[in-house]
Each structure stands twice: as structure tokens, then as C-alpha cells.
Sequence to fold (183 residues):
Amino acid sequence: MIEKVEDICSSEQALLLLALSEHISVQLSDFEDFSIARQALNACWDRLVDKTIDPDSLYWFLENLDDTGILTVMQSEDDARKLKVWICIANAMVLILKEAYASQADEYLPATIEAADIRIVEEFFNNFQNVCEHSRIIINKVLTYLMEIDAVERINRAEILELVGICDSKSSDKHEKKCYPSM
Fold:
């Protein structure tokens, strides 16, 4: 599986991890800090699709002094399965941030971002496969989509979310309508 992921560019890898994180994020919907995950995922989409958030502002969702960053919140998770979901979200964010900082040619990066390498992607997939029943099917759907789109095409968030079974990812309502991908 990781071999196929290595065939796509790093920005597509970041998009893949974000889409897959969306799919499993619903497993946190009963967690009191789900809104933090939701806001972080939305900010990642804002960065990838519209470039409307700068890397430092996006980094705040990962790690901050207010103890509301993904890395802080996930440390309080006692459920092993949910912790793996938090780790996936954090890994996706790190990869997106690495791309975001690289696009600005920033000389100095936060240590968390500077240390990121292919092991982040490997860790993501190890955890994703443990928390997603149909992981291979969903991964292949998104990979196929990414390989088929033209590099100059605009990222279509709605299409990607539909592939992973999410109809309305911006909804903060726990009872949001879900679409489920055909298996």
C-alpha cells in the first residue's frame, strides 16, 4: 500500500491523509473535544483548497499554549482506538504543514514539522488500518481519484469527501447526514 502512496507527489499525499482522516474522524464525534478535531480538519482543507490560512495559523491547531492543539488533546485520550484516530489526524496535519511551510520556503520550522518524514505516512497507515474496517477499499478509491485528476485541476473537497463517505464535513451537528461509500 505504501508503495502506491510513494507514487504520488507530497501534496497529494497530504490530501490523501486528510481525506482518510475525515473518514475516521467520526469515531471521535462523541468525544468532548471533537470540535477541536473538526476545526483542525476544516483549517487543513482551507489550506489545501484555497490557501486561505497561513502555516503558522494552521500550526496553532496542532500545537499551542492554550492546550487546545491536537497534540495536547490526544494525550488525554484513554481509549486506544480513539487515540489512533487522533494520531492519524495529527500525522495528516504534520504532512500538510510540511507542505505549507515548504511552499513559503521558510528557513526555520517548528521542530515537530522539521522532523517529519516518510515515517509519518507509514505511522498514519498503520493506525488507519487499525481503526477503519474497509481501509484498503477507501485508500484505493482516493488514490485512484488522485492519480486520475489533472495536476492543474482545482481540489474538489466535496468529491473527495464523497469518496470517503462524508456528505457534509463542515457540519458541527453530531447528527449530520452521512453518505457511505459503496464497498
About this structure: Residues 169-183 have pLDDT under 50 and may be disordered. The first helix runs from residue 2 to 6. The chain is about 65% helix and 0% strand. Residues 118 and 134 are 23 Å apart (CA to CA).
